[in-house]
Amino acid sequence: MQKQTRLRAIKNAPSATQPPASETGVVAASVYAGGKRIADIRIEEAEAWSKKKDHVVWVGLHEPSKELLERVAAQLHLHPLAIEDASNAHQQPKVEQYGDALFVVARTAQLADGQIAFGETHLFVGAGYVVSVRHGASTSYKAVRDRCESCPSSLAQGEDYILYAILDFIVDNYRPVIDTIQAEVDELEEEVLKKVLPKREFDRMYRLRRDLLRLRRAVGPMIDVCKRLEHADLISMDNEMKPLFRDVLDHAKRAEEDIDSLREILAFVFEATMMAGQAQQTEIARRLTAWAAMLAIPTAVAGIYGMNFENMPELKWEYGYYMVLGGILAICGVLYWRFRKNGWL
């Protein structure tokens, strides 16, 4: 009986048997029923499909134009303030409720040419629809869509599960970035214990600290977003979904803890490098002082005997010159022995 009802619903649904023509800014637009994709649709068909019982419209957009966002908003009745935020790709991670709909902002991070690139994802979640809007550097959510479609029993939970899958994908993508930074930090830590780091390593250290700070600003607010979705005090969220959002929360907390640990290690490396540099400067200053003290002896003696006085001792003595040289060498030898013994040379 349920199978006949579903077939009747699909038969009476808007016509979308063939995939729509590609449109700039639209990555994918599909409708799902019972956890299975039943059609690829156009934006103008989203409202009709979203109002059908047990159907979910999932629209993926990448840096859409204002005109495209307005078309999507008109179809799914999205709040104007949320559309305004989605048009501006400079939002902090947050979750807001507009009536029965949610607007979620998440920061993304990924490696691009050895550098960390940041982006944003804006999610509109309501009864019968999910709209994801990607800005900047962000991995395609095709992998999320494929994973959800491979598990129809989970996808059948509807728009709440899609929201969880996307947020989980975003948070999991923090891990490769953190692992890459950790490898660099471990390398710096090993080097600072062996030698004083050159100037280029200082530049590298400052870059890592900057990247960790920016990553911390992206991950930190995500914890608050996941907490609110987990508790869902003000949001109509399926209770069965709360453990899944708790799992995302745990991953975000672990990422934040790893970032804080790396920042502490970098602070230690920086402090150790500065102390090693100061110790090296002190060692050089000691050596220079020791050699200056030894050179002061012949300089002083030569200066004294360079004075043009007629009555000076040993001027007329046959061995006076050799005696002065011997005295200079003896005093310098004693000083050298003392400096070596004290570790100055």
Description:
With 345 residues, this protein is α+β, with helices and mostly antiparallel strands. Among the domains are: 1-151, 2-Layer Sandwich (Beta Polymerase, domain 2), CATH 3.30.460; 282-341, Up-down Bundle (Methane Monooxygenase Hydroxylase, Chain G, domain 1). It has helices at residues 2-12, 46-50, 66-76, 80-87, 142-149, 152-155, 159-172, 174-192, 199-231, 242-305, 320-341; strands at residues 26-33, 36-40, 55-62, 94-98, 101-112, 115-126, 129-136. A 7-stranded mixed beta sheet has the order 2-1-3-7-6-5-4. Helix 3 packs antiparallel against helix 4. The relative contact order is 0.08.
Write the topology of this structure:
Layout: H1 2-12, E1 26-33, E2 36-40, H2 46-50, E3 55-62, H3 66-76, H4 80-87, E4 94-98, E5 101-112, E6 115-126, E7 129-136, H5 142-149, H6 152-155, H7 159-172, H8 174-192, H9 199-231, H10 242-305, H11 320-341
Parallel strand pairs: 3-7
Antiparallel strand pairs: 1-2, 1-3, 4-5, 5-6, 6-7
Number of strands: 7
CATH topology name of the domain at 1-151, in short, is Beta Polymerase, domain 2
CATH class of the domain at 1-151: Alpha Beta
Rg calc: 36 Å
- Stretches where pLDDT falls below 50 for ≥5 residues? 1-19
Relevant CATH superfamily of the domain at 1-151: CorA soluble domain-like
Order of helices and strands: HEEHEHHEEEEHHHHHHH
Spatial strand order of the main sheet = 2-1-3-7-6-5-4
Number of helices: 11
Structural class: alpha+beta
Most strands sheet: 7 strands, mixed
Architecture of the domain at 1-151, according to CATH? 2-Layer Sandwich
